[in-house]
From TrEMBL:
<feature type="transmembrane region" description="Helical">
    <location>
        <begin position="44"/>
        <end position="66"/>
    </location>
</feature>
<feature type="transmembrane region" description="Helical">
    <location>
        <begin position="12"/>
        <end position="32"/>
    </location>
</feature>
<dbReference type="Pfam" id="PF12698">
    <property type="entry name" value="ABC2_membrane_3"/>
</dbReference>
<keyword id="KW-0472">Membrane</keyword>
<dbReference type="GO" id="GO:0005886">
    <property type="term" value="C:plasma membrane"/>
</dbReference>
<protein>
    <submittedName>
        <fullName>ABC transporter permease</fullName>
    </submittedName>
</protein>
<dbReference type="GO" id="GO:0140359">
    <property type="term" value="F:ABC-type transporter activity"/>
</dbReference>
<keyword id="KW-0812">Transmembrane</keyword>
<dbReference type="InterPro" id="IPR013525">
    <property type="entry name" value="ABC2_TM"/>
</dbReference>
<keyword id="KW-1133">Transmembrane helix</keyword>
<keyword id="KW-1003">Cell membrane</keyword>
<feature type="transmembrane region" description="Helical">
    <location>
        <begin position="123"/>
        <end position="142"/>
    </location>
</feature>
<feature type="transmembrane region" description="Helical">
    <location>
        <begin position="78"/>
        <end position="111"/>
    </location>
</feature>
<dbReference type="InterPro" id="IPR051449">
    <property type="entry name" value="ABC-2_transporter_component"/>
</dbReference>
<feature type="transmembrane region" description="Helical">
    <location>
        <begin position="154"/>
        <end position="176"/>
    </location>
</feature>
<feature type="transmembrane region" description="Helical">
    <location>
        <begin position="213"/>
        <end position="233"/>
    </location>
</feature>
<feature type="domain" description="ABC-2 type transporter transmembrane">
    <location>
        <begin position="46"/>
        <end position="227"/>
    </location>
</feature>
């Protein structure tokens, strides 16, 4: 994990990602989110846009987790080190997750600005940050699994983006409406419960429900388990 985390900052990738993330966060919050026009001291506009920001930037981080190792052939060297496949998967995932957490923490000036301009509910904002980080972990776990299946970072990026979008869009009313005429209620509720937005929105309202936390935990664990299985299969080949 330390090696992977340090590797982000030995190339321009980390700095480019952080700069783009902070710039787009500011644009979405203050301009597209019409922060000043609304005249309300909160970060709703920031957290409303962050799933869509993640949809582009997180796959860009996840695509290199395993694709780069497979393309350069260093995955064989990695497998000879005194670490298990599970440890390698967790190490790479945690490094990327911590890196995104650092980028998220660097948005604190936005939080400071809101407190300077008014009296927001900081408990809700803190919960929203937690939900954002958990959602990033879910996106990364999906990207990790996809990255392990291909040597092409471009293919990994596109497939991760598509899969993450499907998990985000599963809770959209227009998607659920397509099932209402023929599907039973339990199926519609099941599809809605698969959406990242359904659980993130609940947390971003300041309600930290165990079911929402379990959703992100199970989603992350399942995709990381799938990553381990894929790597073991590729190693056997």
């Amino acid at each position: 994990m330390r090696r992977e985390l340090a590797s982000y900052f030995t190339t321009p990738l980390a700095y480019i990602f952080i700069v783009i993330f902070l710039m787009m966060s500011g644009v979405f919050t203050f301009y597209l989110g019409r922060f000043f026009e609304r005249g309300q001291a909160d970060l709703i506009s920031f957290f409303n846009f962050i799933p869509w920001l993640y949809l582009i930037l997180v796959p860009a981080i996840a695509m290199r987790l395993w694709s780069e190792e497979r393309k350069s052939g260093t995955i064989e060297l990695l497998m000879t080190l005194p670490v298990t496949v599970v440890q390698a998967v967790l190490g790479k995932f945690l490094a990327a997750w911590l890196f995104i957490g650092v980028a998220l923490l660097l948005t604190f000036p936005v939080w400071v600005t809101v407190n300077y301009l008014g009296e927001p509910d900081n408990g809700v904002i803190l919960a929203s940050y937690l939900g954002s980080w958990l959602m990033a972990g879910g996106f990364l776990a999906i990207g990790s699994c996809v990255s392990a299946t291909t040597k092409s970072q471009v293919v990994a990026f596109i497939l991760t983006l598509v899969i993450c979008f499907l998990f985000v869009a599963a809770g959209f009313p227009m998607v659920l409406d397509a099932f209402t005429e023929w599907a039973p209620l339990w199926m519609i509720d099941g599809i809605s419960s698969l959406s990242f937005l359904t659980h993130f929105d609940a947390i971003s309202r300041g309600v930290i429900d165990l079911r929402d936390l379990l959703y992100f935990l199970i989603m992350t664990v399942c995709w990381l388990t799938a990553t381990t299985i894929v790597i073991n299969i590729k190693k056997a080949d």
